[in-house]
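May I ask for whichever protein you like with its C-alpha cells?
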Amino acid sequence: MDSNFQNNNCPHCGGQIKFDPTAQALICQSCGQAATDEAAAIPTFDCPNCGAELSVIAGSRQSKCEFCGGSFVMLLDGDDCELTGEIPDNHKYIIPFTVSKEEYQRGVISWLASEKLTPTDAFKKIGIIKSEGRYIPHYYCIANFNGSYTASIGHNRIETYIEHVQQRDSKGNVRTVPMTRTRTVIDWHPFNSQIKGTATNLCEASKDIKKVAAQTHNATPEKWKLGIEHSSNGLYEPMNVAIDRKQAYDTKFTTGYSVLACDEPYSIVYDKGKIQNEIHRQIKKAAPGDHIRNINFQGNIIPDFFLVFRPSWMTVYSYEDKICFNTCDGSNANKHYGTRPVDKDSKRRLATLRTATIISVLVLIIGFIGTALTYDGVQAIFFVLMALGAIASLGTGIVFFVNYRALVSKGKQTNAETAKRYLNSPDLLFSRRSAKADPTL
C-alpha cells in the first residue's frame, strides 16, 4: 500500500486549514479565508512548513510534525487497512462534523456544571491534556436475502364451552349448575411462502474509546479513584450512526481532525445470528395469521460491506491528580459521556447518610414484622424496635435530604454561576494546559 500526506496549508497565507462544521467548508485558521478542496489535496512526504520528515501517528491516518507542530492527513492508494478486506472505495462513507469546536466546548462546560457533586473549584483547577475532533470507523453490513420459508401459522378462534360450577342457594343447599364460558384457542397449521428483503447490522471497527477509558482510569492514583464518576449519560457514546447523513468519503472532511484506524476485521459486522433474527422478524411481519412459530428460512443471503466514519469530539483532562475524559457526538452536542471529577468528601458523606437511612428502615421493617407475628413479651421488644426504627428513619431521612440539597443543589447553583464566565469564552478553560502527561499515547 502506497501512501503520502495531504497538505493542510492555506494557499493564501500558509496557515493551517481545517474543515469547518458550521460552514461545511475548508477554512484557514489564520486568515479565515476559504480554501478549495484541491488546495488540500497536494501530496507531500515532508512537512510543507519546515521540510522535516513526517511520521504517521500510531492508530490513525495522520502525521504531526515534531518540529513545527503541523498536522497532516494521510492519503492512501488502495485499501487503507488490511482489516477492511475488500471493501471498495465507493463503499466508504463519512458523516461530516456539524458540531463546531466552540459548540462542543460550551457543551463540556454546561455538562460539568450540571452534573451532581462536581467540585465547586473544578473550573479553576481543570487542565486540558488534549482536545480533538476524531472520526471513528464503523462497519455497516447490508445483507440482501431471497428465498422460501416454512412455519406454523396460528389463528385465534373464540370457543364456547360449558363449565359446571357449584353454587349455594338461599337455603344453603349446594347444587351444580352449567355455566357457558368462552375462551381463545389457537388453531395451528403448516405454512410456506417466499420472502426477500434486506437485513442490516452495524458495529464499531475501533476499540479506541475503550482504550481511552482504561488508560485514563489507570493513570489516576488508586487513592483518588473514589473522586471520579461516570457521566450521568454513561461512560460511552451510544452507537448512533446517522446513515442517512452519510457522504462519500472525502479527505476534505478530515482536514484538521484525527481519523482513527480500524483495529477489528470487517467480518465481525456479518453477525449471522443478528441477520437471522432480522430475517425472522420480517417473516413474522409479512406472514398471515395471529401467531407464528417454528420458522425455517432457506435461501440466499448476500452481504454487502461498508466503512462509515462517524464524527466524535473527545477531551482528556485533569483535575488535581485525577485524569478524566469526555466524548460527544460530532453531530449532536446535547449529550456528553465519559468520566468526571466529584467531591470525594461530599460523596462519602452522602453515602454514609444513605447507609444509615437504609439500616433505620430495615430496623423498622423487622420491628413491624416481629410485632405482627409474635405475642406477649417478645412482641413488646419488636414494638420497641419498630418505634426506634421509625424515629431513626425519619431523622436520618431528614438529615439526608437536607445534606443532599446543601451538597448537590447548592453545588450545582454555584457551578452554574461560575460556568457563565466560561460559556462566554470557552477558551479560558480549554487554553489552560495540564501538566499531566497524556495517558493515551
